[in-house]
Specification:
By secondary structure, the protein is an alpha+beta fold. The protein folds into 2 domains: 80 residues, Beta-grasp domain (Ubiquitin-like (UB roll)); 87 residues, DNA polymerase, domain 1 (Orthogonal Bundle), CATH 1.10.150. 40% of the residues lie in helices and 13% in strands. It contains 6 helices and 5 strands. A hairpin with a 2-residue loop joins strand 3 and strand 4. The longest helix has 34 residues. The chain starts with a helix and ends in a 10-residue tail after the last helix.
């Protein structure tokens, strides 16, 4: 997560006391007063009352606090909130903004990929990013790239099932879209005047 020079200079002028920080969270600018040492997780939960990301280990080992910063997975307990100024933070609350379930959330429910539910927000955020990153070839790859998210209830087979379901649905949709584009392209090239040398 490279920071621009102006962000680094602005951060260097702050501290040690609280300062006003503007965070873009779930596509909404939010101003909060934070000490520079406040983690993104604490800013979300305690200052912005977005309690989806969970505090499990507070050491970056369980993944319950996983959110996205500029579309990349981060552990919110290890990320300073002030370092996220000028970046887009997405928490589980912003995954499906219109009150509908995101396809991954729906797949978790359908696959019974949760038990106590404590780790579920972090699991879902990682699972969506995992598909975008392209690390879903098989169960071994899914398990490897989800290994930073611990489920103490051991719902791993069901979590992988949910991820496969979303992956397969996306792949089928992409194949249909590609076939539709190909048909549309052939129909356009078959029109009079579109052939080589036509008028």
């Amino acid at each position: 997560m490279a920071m621009g020079v102006e962000v680094v200079q602005r951060l260097a002028r702050r501290g040690p006391g609280a300062a006003t920080v503007t965070l873009s969270v779930n596509r909404e600018a939010r101003e909060v007063r934070l000490e520079p040492r406040v983690s993104l997780l604490d800013a979300l939960r305690e200052h912005l009352v977005l309690t989806g990301a969970k505090k499990g280990c507070d050491q970056g080992t369980c993944g319950a606090c996983t959110v996205w910063v500029d579309g990349r997975r981060v552990l919110a307990c290890l990320t300073l909130a002030i370092a996220c100024e000028g970046r887009e933070v997405t928490s589980i609350e912003g995954l499906a903004p219109d009150g509908e379930l995101h396809p991954m959330q729906a797949a978790f429910v359908a696959s019974d990929a949760l038990q106590c539910g404590y780790c579920t927000p972090g699991q879902v955020m990682s699972a969506v990013a995992l598909i975008e990153e392209g690390h879903v070839a098989d169960d071994a790859e899914i398990a490897e790239w989800m290994s930073g998210n611990i489920c103490r209830c051991a719902a791993y087979p069901n979590i992988r099932q949910a991820i496969r379901e979303v992956r397969d649905t996306r792949d089928a949709r992409d194949a249909r879209d590609a076939a539709g584009r190909a048909r549309h392209g052939k129909a356009r090239s078959a029109r009079p005047g579109n052939a080589a040398g036509g008028s």
